[in-house]
Specification:
The structure holds three protein chains of three kinds. By secondary structure, chain A is mainly alpha-helical. Chain A has a domain of 143 residues: Orthogonal Bundle (Cytochrome Bc1 Complex, Chain D, domain 2), CATH 1.10.760. Chain A is 33% helix and 7% strand. In chain A, the strands form two sheets. Chain A has a two-stranded antiparallel sheet with strand order 1-2. In chain A, strands 3-4 form a two-stranded antiparallel ribbon. In chain A, helix 2 packs across helix 6. The termini of chain A are far apart. Chain B is mainly α. Among the domains of chain B are: 34 residues, no CATH class; 125 residues, Cytochrome c-like domain (Cytochrome Bc1 Complex, Chain D, domain 2). Chain B has a three-stranded mixed sheet with strand order 2-1-3. By secondary structure, chain C is mostly helical. Chain C has a single domain, classed as Cytochrome c oxidase-like, subunit I domain (Cytochrome C Oxidase, Chain A, Up-down Bundle), CATH 1.20.210.10. Classes of the chains: A mainly alpha, B mainly alpha, C mainly alpha. Chains A and C meet through helix 1 and helix 2 of A and helix 3, helix 6, helix 7, helix 8 and helix 9 of C.
């Protein structure tokens, strides 16, 4: 192996093989999905995301949630994802067609969030949990995201979106804790995470 | 030892490299002592590859081919389960037996309910009420099957008493689930963890869904208590015990459809 | 050594003298870029270590510094990864790669001042990128968190460096091409392709989410496998025979190892997504490719081992050799571990746990970083013209980092397996799986403190060398030389 062309062509070809298999192939086969319309209800799956949820996706990325939370329900036989109730069926590629970037994740320091919108559909719960995670779920090592919330003086009536803090946390008298736009967006995104709808390539384990 | 190296080679060097004369090697030795003592650049030895290694590698390659043949779902882009051997035959398509509510219900329960009520059905002390042995689930005391279906469809808020303990949380509505799904979940929780109660059918859920279509907010315990208990199994228990403040039952006799509560605004 | 010399014919002695002058020229020509890249590498090593410590502490005490978004765990952790991957490891790889390439091609680095521009651009890119992540511009795509303004700069800088390396190879002196050169050439060609494709498809013109995961891990795994690994192996292939003065065991094993690595490593990425939302064949192909890594790994391990065999006492004296052989052994270890982790029945335990984190550190630290330390101990005295000031500092550096990384890998592996087994059992509530990891995460922080101390010692040693502290020495700085012990064989 003393000739440059031999080495360079070999280097090119070996790498090209994986480029075709793991870049070009998914680009062509998994990168051009269209949503599926359910013939019974006329609903579209995966459902479109609201603008607020898309903004929340950016907050999710900026906050690095993906380093502790995955968003995928593995196939049957691959872990206890289904038994833990993290989804009613394994996730498939089409589920993520509207995601950018996609947060499949590689760590489960915290539980999977692929269907958190179905599992914890209460916006207030999500806000409380983001603000005081170790109070809402004792033992959790999730950091508080209280920098996404604002302490403000109550002007007249308490704001409709003020957070009901759980003890021992409490806003000082005459003050309330309200979510910033970023927190509202993040919660909207979390609540939008519900991939329990049916898809033809993902037979639901219930039906 | 180190000094041997340059001493031996130095005398010859200046003759052969006229052009390097300016860069005198005294200078080189000063600045680059490390270079003078360093050994030759690496060379290759030519030991052959041992036969055992070749054999093991060939066996590995064979294994790799076999693995791909068995666990690649026929190299189709829409087959996601590696254990599904999909050569030739289309995915799925087999005849399905009637679903067993204890199997399917459990799956749905784990998908939707365990986050609060836990896989053990014990709930979380002080936060989420238990289902195991709960009078709400099996329909004892004043609780009817109709109450159970209603609170699952529309949610429940405010203080509730379960097994003698008061909980103050909020259960979200689950009307997005299909009738069959709710029926399976309820049948499952009524017959798990030592519970034992008759099954609930999709038709019964459908009927109550229709009756309570105008309900927009979660029920409260007081509201539900005001509705006479109905037991789908047939045996109807009588109205709730008179409780002073509670609204009196509207119709004493409870046929399968209880008329009450629809559209009653929640006062909280 | 003297025996081999005297046996040489006169002509060879002449050629050797010529080679020495040539080497001096080459070393002088690489001085500026090598010192610049090494200097910035050490700087980013310290910065990256600081972020790592912070992230580790935050797992022990979640309320620690949680009032600012800038220092939330989800930003500090990617800041750590990118600072060490692009700031430390890549800079060290570039410095080492350029020097090795010049040495092995026997061609001086021409117009090396232009590479200063590349170094400045690279550092600016890492700085902006790290700043971007902390300020909330991070993309949360593992290994590609840098916002576009930073990754663009990195690409320009890298392009310049790669062109330099390839041109150097093109104008090499005729003769045998050594195995290290294949790896270097491949790494310098693969990485720009890899980096541009992944950034284009994920950050600049993002493709649909369903396909992003595959591209993400194609990049993520290949950054390790086709950028750091070849540079690390090229360095080991050079330094081990060089320091020992022995030929590498087998040319044929080198060839087999190189091409099987090129073919199989590039297909490994999907094993990060086993069970995930991708067609079964993609996952299975990566599982097979991962198991096939047995071929290059065993080949390389045997090749290195047979070269060192009979000379292990040299590890007692030579800092370069000790770091390099430690790294080469950990390459085998981490690769074999990686093979087992890719087998689906074992992957269900280790996937999504701290075991993977331990594995990543075994690869990028115990293997790659330790070899880079070894390379720096060899190369810097040559380009700076000054011996390492203190053997004691080197000894502290070695033991602090070796014990630190060993401890980190062990505790994360134990914690990860406990966590993984608990996660597998649906009867164990999630909070309990977390409880299992807590004591091990605490020990991980302890090991992190050891590593930090080792890095500070190294940075002090490095600064003293650059400032030419102490007296001029003609002897190399060897372990034990400060304790009055005389090595029976001088090795450098």
């Amino acid at each position: 192996m003393n000739r440059m062309p031999v080495i360079v062509v070999g280097i090119f070809l070996t790498f090209l093989s994986s480029w075709i298999g793991l870049v070009a192939y998914p680009y062509l086969n998994l990168g051009r999905f269209t949503p599926v319309t359910d013939p019974d209800s006329g609903e579209v799956f995966p459902p479109p995301m609201s603008g607020l949820a898309v903004a929340g996706q950016r907050v999710y990325a900026a906050s690095g949630c993906v380093y502790c939370h995955s968003q995928q329900v593995r196939q049957v036989g691959y872990g206890s994802d289904l038994e833990r109730g993290w989804g009613s069926r394994p996730t498939v590629a089409r589920d993520f067609m509207r995601e950018n970037p996609v947060f499949l994740g590689t760590m489960r320091t915290g539980p999977d969030l692929a269907n958190i919108g179905a599992r914890q559909p209460s916006a207030m719960w999500q806000h409380q949990h983001l603000y005081q995670p170790s109070v809402v779920s004792p033992g959790s090592i999730m950091p508080s995201y209280r920098y996404l919330y604002r302490l403000q003086k109550i002007e007249g009536q308490r704001s409709a979106n003020a957070i009901d803090l759980l003890p021992p946390d409490a806003a000082p008298d005459g003050y309330e804790v309200v979510p910033t736009h970023e927190a509202e967006a993040l919660v909207a995104y979390l609540l939008s995470l519900n991939r329990n709808y049916p898809l033809p390539e993902a037979p639901e384990s219930s039906q | 030892m180190m000094s041997q190296d340059p001493n031996k080679t130095q005398p010859e060097a200046p003759d052969t490299f006229q052009m390097d004369m300016e860069r005198d090697d005294i200078n080189v030795r000063d600045v680059h002592g490390a270079i003078l003592r360093e050994k030759d650049d690496p060379r290759d030895g030519y030991e052959p590859i041992p036969l055992w290694m070749v054999s093991i590698f060939m066996a590995l390659v064979f294994w790799g081919g076999a693995y791909l043949a068995f666990f690649s779902g026929g190299f189709q882009a829409d087959v996601f389960d590696p254990s599904q051997v999909a050569w030739g035959a289309g995915a799925g398509g087999a005849e399905k037996a009637a679903p067993d509510p204890m199997v399917v219900g459990k799956k749905l329960f784990t998908a939707n309910c365990v986050a609060c009520h836990q896989a053990t059905g014990q709930g979380v002390a002080g936060q989420f009420p238990p289902l195991a042995g709960s009078e709400w689930v099996v329909g004892s005391d004043w609780h009817g099957d109709n109450h159970l279906v209603k609170l699952v469809l529309h949610g429940l808020q405010g203080p509730v008493q379960v097994e003698g303990t008061t909980y103050n949380g909020a259960m979200p509505p689950w009307k997005q689930l299909k009738d069959e799904q709710i029926a399976m979940i309820l049948t499952y929780i009524r017959n798990e963890w030592g519970n034992s109660a008759p099954p609930i059918t999709a038709e019964q859920v459908a009927k109550i869904r229709e009756e309570t279509a105008s309900q927009t907010e979660p029920f409260t315990q007081a509201q539900l208590k005001a509705i006479p208990a109905v037991h789908f199994g047939g045996s109807a228990e009588s109205a709730p015990p008179a409780d002073g403040t509670d609204a009196p039952p509207e119709g004493g006799e409870p046929p399968a459809d209880a008329p009450a509560a629809t559209g009653t605004p929640t006062g909280v | 050594m003297s025996a081999t010399l005297t046996m040489k014919p006169e002509a060879t002695a002449e050629a050797e003298a010529r080679a020495k002058v040539e080497r001096a020229e080459i070393d002088a020509s690489t001085r500026l870029p090598v010192v610049l890249f090494y200097g910035s590498a050490v700087f980013w090593l310290l910065v990256g270590t600081l972020f790592a410590l912070l992230a580790s502490f935050k797992m022990n005490a979640p309320t620690f510094l949680d009032q600012w978004g800038w220092l939330t765990y989800g930003r500090v952790r990617p800041a750590h990864l990118n600072a060490v991957a692009y700031g430390w490891a890549s800079s060290a790889a570039i410095g080492t790669g350029l020097w090795l390439m010049a040495r092995l091609c026997r061609a001086p680095l021409r117009h090396s001042t232009l590479l200063i521009g590349a170094a400045i651009f690279w550092n600016l890119g890492v700085l902006l990128g790290t700043f971007g992540i902390l300020s909330g511009d991070g993309r949360s795509i593992e290994w590609l968190e840098f916002p576009n303004y930073a990754s663009g700069m990195l690409f320009v800088a890298y392009g310049l460096i790669a062109v330099w390396a390839v041109i150097m190879f093109r104008f090499r002196q005729p003769g045998h091409v050594y195995v290290s050169q294949w790896y270097l050439l491949a790494a310098f060609l693969w990485f720009p392709w890899l980096y541009s494709t992944a950034n284009l498809l994920l950050n600049f013109q993002p493709i649909q989410g369903g396909a992003q995961g595959a591209v993400n891990w194609w990049y993520g795994h290949n950054a390790l496998g086709l950028w750091f690994t070849p540079i690390g192996l090229a360095t080991a292939y050079y330094l081990i025979p060089k320091v020992l003065g022995r030929p590498i065991h087998s040319y044929y094993l080198s060839i087999l190892g190189f091409w099987s690595l090129a073919l199989f490593y590039s297909w490994n990425g999907m094993h990060h997504l086993i069970g995930g939302p991708f067609p079964a064949w993609m996952i299975s192909a990566s599982v097979v490719a991962s198991v096939m890594m047995f071929i290059p790994v065993v080949t390389t391990a045997i090749n290195h081992h047979m070269t060192v065999r009979g000379n292990f006492q040299a590890l007692k004296w030579s800092p370069t050799l000790r770091f390099t052989v430690f790294g080469a052994m950990c390459y085998t270890l981490s690769s074999v571990q990686g093979i087992f982790m890719a087998i689906p029945s074992l992957n269900v335990v280790t996937h999504f746990t701290h075991y993977t984190v331990g594995h990543a550190h075994l690869g990028l630290y115990a293997f790659f970083t330790m070899i880079m330390f070894g390379a720096m101990y060899y190369i810097l005295p040559r380009v700076v013209g000054w011996e390492w000031p203190s053997a004691r500092l080197i000894r502290w550096h070695f033991w602090l980092t070796a014990v630190g990384i060993g401890m980190m890998v062990v505790v994360l592996s134990i914690g990860g397996i406990l966590q993984g087994l608990a996660l597998l059992d649906p009867g164990v509530t999630f909070m309990v799986t977390l409880e299992y990891t807590k004591p091990w995460l605490f020990l991980r922080s302890v090991s992190g403190i050891l590593l930090t101390a080792g890095h500070i010692v190294f940075a002090v040693s490095f600064t003293m060398l650059l400032l030419r502290v102490g007296v001029r020495k003609t002897e190399p700085t060897l372990f034990g030389s400060d304790q009055g012990r005389k090595p029976e064989r001088l090795t450098v």
